[in-house]
Write a structure and sequence with these properties.
single chain, mainly alpha, globular
Length: about 290
């Protein structure tokens, strides 16, 4: 999951190139994915108590991997938004299921395991942009020198001005506004908008989906192992539930206190998601 979040910003220009839309329209990719995440978190939290927990995690991981794998092949805006919404749904379900599963397995001793989960998330977020960079489309700006009066212009001056514009994208704005006057001739360097070469971002999405498919295989293995040791797992689950019931009775809160705590948590999570997902994604693109 951290790997996916880390690559969301860097691959954004390449996704814009694939769907051939402007920045304002393409930015809906982030919004739609978060809407899907919200729905996936709500529905996944409900289904976690009603379905087999391990199979739910396996299905969410597999669905998330498929959506990531198909993302670079969506050439239309509608298809891109749909697959991003579906991916966000599975992402939210998987994220919620991971936290709930850790609490279910380790109960009140889940602290170190939650820290380990966050540590793995951070490592993936850190390494993902570095691994994604080789597959991104290279940006370039082409410039041409236009003669306004064709009297006495040397080819060397035109060649130097053009090469400077092509070799250094950061000086494009300076070169556009700079008019070189040579004898009775005026040369105006005209630079086109920044364009991208053909992208190989499909390979980056393939790597990301590989991690999720490998997690799916692990979940299926755990499910098979649980089926074989069903009796032992039933006994352990009963012990965990009894401990959880004791904790629940010990920490009962009034309805007013619950509302206050949930409101504060909702505010904190909202700010965290804005800073971690949306803002960081655009910052990485910038």
């Amino acid at each position: 999951m951290g790997w996916h979040v880390g690559m969301s910003g860097p691959v954004f220009p390449d996704l814009r190139q694939i769907i051939q839309e402007g920045l304002a329209i393409s930015s809906w990719i982030f919004t739609i994915e978060q809407c899907g995440y919200l729905c996936g978190s709500l529905i996944g939290g409900i289904l976690y108590d009603k379905l087999n927990k391990v199979l739910l995690l396996a299905g969410s991981s597999f669905g998330f991997g498929v959506s990531i794998l198909l993302t670079p092949y969506c050439s239309s805006l509608a298809a891109m938004l749909f697959i991003k919404c579906a991916g966000g749904f599975f992402f939210g379900s998987l994220d919620t299921g991971c936290y709930a599963d850790i609490i279910s397995v380790w109960g009140e001793h889940a602290g170190p395991y939650l820290q380990a989960l966050h540590f793995a998330f951070a490592i993936g977020t850190l390494l993902s942009p570095l691994a994604t960079e080789p597959f991104l489309a290279v940006s370039f700006t082409t410039c041409e020198s236009n003669n306004m009066t064709s009297d006495n212009v040397t080819d060397q001056s035109v060649h130097e001005t053009t090469n400077a514009a092509i070799s250094n994208v950061s000086t494009t704005a300076t070169l556009v506004n700079k008019i070189a006057t040579l004898d009775n001739s005026t040369i105006v360097p005209t630079c086109n908008c920044e364009t991208l070469e053909e992208t190989n971002v499909r390979d980056a999405f393939l790597i990301s989906s590989f991690f999720l498919f490998s997690a799916t295989v692990c979940y299926i293995y755990i499910y098979i192992k649980i089926r074989r040791n069903k009796r032992k797992m039933t006994i352990s689950e009963t012990k965990v539930k009894s401990k959880d019931d004791m904790c629940h009775k010990r920490n009962e809160m009034s309805i007013h206190l619950k509302i206050i705590v949930l409101s504060i948590l909702s505010l904190l999570v909202s700010l965290s998601c804005a800073a971690e997902d949306s803002f960081s994604g655009f910052l990485a693109t910038f």
